[in-house]
Design a protein that fits this description.
about 220 residues, alpha/beta, two-stranded antiparallel ribbon
Length: about 220
């Protein structure tokens, strides 16, 4: 039975919030207004403080994609990643991925972001598996503006990671999971080795209390 190493993306493998980097990309190309930028930073602040209503925010954020072909958004993300994100990929994250790869562990990114924003990172790091928040498509391959529930967030992240475990034949209870956020506590509590990476203040307190490994990437 394989052993899995699971990695969060934002503020873990990538030192920044990718949502703020994507809205910057949009601003530079005239695809987003100052109001759009302010809204994203407000959502990021809510996420950081742990007071975000994730389903509501996801529904509002995805409205801007309604009617867009999947191929267009995928291409934009492939352009955005090397332009604005790649420089923020953590060196220590790369090392951790390589350590697990040399052990023969199954590697997966498990993120609340969409697969389109996370896939370029997975390709860069040679990570085969990706668990993310899926976006609904219509029959013509265009976004409906709605997420496919559950979001890969909180308990939904546990559910989606469990599906990967069932498909690939590993046990979450034997896995390692690297994350920065208290919102990932449900999955951190399920794995054998939870690792708090660049943890927010509340996760840092829990990690110290429970004797979890804390790392700075």
């Amino acid at each position: 039975m394989p052993v899995a190493a699971l990695f969060d993306m934002d503020r873990t493998l990538v030192r920044r919030e990718t949502a703020s980097l994507y809205v910057r990309y949009q601003r530079e190309r005239g695809q987003a207004s100052f109001r759009d930028t302010a809204r994203v930073f407000y959502w990021v602040t809510q996420y950081t403080l742990g007071v975000i209503d994730a389903p509501d925010v996801a529904s509002r954020a995805l409205r801007q994609l309604e009617g867009m072909p999947e191929t267009v958004f995928s291409a934009r993300c492939d352009d955005w990643f090397p332009a604005l994100v790649e420089r923020h990929v953590a060196d220590q994250g790369r090392i951790a991925v390589d350590v697990h790869r040399k052990r023969g562990d199954l590697l997966a990114i498990v993120t609340g972001a969409s697969p389109y924003t996370a896939r370029p990172l997975a390709r860069l790091l040679g990570i085969e598996h990706l668990v993310a928040s899926e976006l609904e498509l219509d029959a013509s391959g265009r976004f409906t503006g709605r997420p496919v529930l559950p979001l890969c967030y909180g308990e939904g992240k546990v559910e989606r990671a469990s599906r990967l475990a069932a498909a690939q034949g590993f046990r979450l209870e034997e896995a390692t999971f690297y994350s920065d956020s208290l919102t990932d506590l449900p999955l951190l509590e399920r794995v054998r080795e939870p690792v708090a990476v660049n943890p927010d203040a509340r996760l840092a307190r829990i990690a110290r209390k429970r004797g979890w490994r804390i790392e700075k990437w």
